[in-house]
Amino acid sequence: MNTSTTFSMLRALPAEHRERLMRSAREVSFPQGTRLFEEGARADRFWIIRTGTVALDMHVPGRRAAVIETIGHDELVGWSWLFAPHAWHLGAETTSPVRAYEFDAVAVRSMCQDDHALGHSVAQWVGDILAHRLQSARTRLLDLYAPYGSGSTL
Fold first, then answer.
1. d(Cα 126, Cα 119) in Å, to the nearest integer?
2. Which of 12, 26, 28, 143 is the most buried (most CB within 10 A)?
3. Cα distances (angstroms) measured from residue 88 to each of 2, 19, 50, 51
4. What are the strands, taking DSSP E only, across the chain?
5. Which bin fits 74, alpha (ψ -120 to 50), beta or left (φ > 0)?
6. Is residue 99 a contact partner of residue 32, using CB atoms and an 8 Å limit?
């Protein structure tokens, strides 16, 4: 599945909601190897990648962080900002130079609270991405750490 196509903000949100969100965005860039956030830290912003790639990773005690998924063009980086307690559930690091749109989480949550239609659209978009990322994390961790065959479903 091409998540860039499936979960693109351009496809997921009605034009008026997308345009309203984009008015609050600012353009940022990060060199390769930049840690965008760490698990457990305060989730106070999120990004939509314009160019480059970001690896989402999960701390695994006694081992290197496990890369859960690598995301790129037009994809959302960060969903924890939308749900209390607003703390990152994963870590993220750029794997190439990245240009992105950055959004202030508090401002977007406020917009969503003031406009319930916008809030519903954003929640549906982020929820769909969250469901996909949780399945990716499960699959990746089974691939890395489970005995052979443990990932099969009954």
1. 10
2. 12
3. 24, 26, 22, 23
4. 26-30, 35-37, 45-51, 54-58, 66-71, 76-77, 91-94, 98-104
5. left
6. no
Domain spans, the chain: 3-141
Tokens of 98: 């990245």
Domain 3-141 sits in which CATH superfamily? Jelly Rolls (2.60.120.10)
pTM above 0.70, yes or no: yes
Phi, psi (deg, nearest 5) at residue 34: -80, 130
What's the token pair of residue 91?
């870590």
> For the segment 79-90, what is each residue's pLDDT rounded down to a tens digit?
999 999 999 999
pLDDT single digits (tens) 107-153: 999 999 999 999 999 999 998 888 887 887 778 777 767 766 555 55
